[in-house]
């Protein structure tokens, strides 16, 4: 079974995200594009069976991984909204996800991405994130300058130090040892036709 790339177009898209300072509010995991993501929300998607996810050979701890997906989903929506044709409706997104599932549960589908042990609700977020990334890739292929659009999107990001910091120079989530994630997470698009999880 060929799996659609999980992190398609992220290199072009995440280039617009900037660090807006350290988030010190108690109970807040991050603020992204004016929307707050709470630590309780992040924790609600993790179970005792949640396993780290391998990204470019780095084992990403469950909670930082969840936070990355939640921030990325919001940013993809913002860039699509600013792109020609605008953002898809929720109904369109749901139809895309349903088509991709082909009768599987969301959890079964994301296992193909190497994502195991998370809640069904989070699996749904992963699939929406993947579909939004695919739409951005389509725009790139159609000649749309997604990077230029993303650079104009007002999407400040601040991350609770518990999960890491947003590296504004390299547009990456740089994590701390306390986040359980050594090094830097860098989502890159896969080689054309490679399928699977982009590293």
Structural features, described:
- The chain has 199 residues and is of the alpha+beta class.
- Helices cover 39% and strands 15% of the residues.
- The protein has seven helices and nine strands.
- It has helices at 10-13, 39-44, 62-82, 90-101, 106-111, 120-141, 146-152; strands at 18-19, 28-32, 35-38, 53-55, 58-60, 156-159, 165-167, 172-174, 184-185.
- The strands form three sheets. A four-stranded mixed β-sheet has the order 1-6-2-3. A three-stranded antiparallel β-sheet has the order 7-8-9, with no helix packed on it.
- A hairpin with a 4-residue loop joins strand 7 and strand 8 (172-174).
- Helix 3 packs across helix 6 (120-141) and helix 4 (90-101) crosses helix 6.
- It is globular and about 45 Å long.
- The chain starts with 9 loop residues before the first helix and ends in a 14-residue tail after the last strand.
- The model is unreliable at 1-24 and 180-199 (pLDDT under 50).
């Amino acid at each position: 079974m060929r799996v659609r790339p999980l992190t398609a177009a992220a290199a072009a898209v995440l280039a617009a995200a900037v660090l807006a300072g350290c988030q010190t509010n108690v109970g807040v995991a991050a603020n992204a594009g004016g929307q707050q993501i709470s630590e309780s929300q992040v924790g609600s998607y993790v179970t005792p069976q949640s396993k780290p996810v391998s990204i470019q050979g780095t084992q990403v701890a469950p909670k930082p991984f969840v936070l990355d997906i939640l921030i990325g989903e919001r940013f993809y929506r913002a860039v699509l909204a600013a792109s020609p044709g605008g953002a898809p409706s929720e109904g369109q997104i749901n139809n895309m996800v349903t088509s991709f599932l082909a009768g599987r549960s969301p959890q079964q589908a994301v296992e193909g991405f190497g994502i195991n042990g998370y809640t069904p609700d989070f699996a749904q977020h992963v699939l929406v994130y993947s579909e939004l990334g695919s739409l951005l890739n389509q725009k790139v292929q159609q000649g749309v300058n997604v990077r230029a659009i993303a650079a104009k999107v007002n999407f400040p990001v601040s991350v609770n130090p518990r999960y890491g910091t947003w590296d504004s120079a390299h547009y990456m989530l740089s994590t701390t040892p306390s986040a359980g994630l050594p090094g830097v997470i860098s989502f890159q698009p896969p080689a054309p036709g490679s399928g699977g999880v982009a590293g």
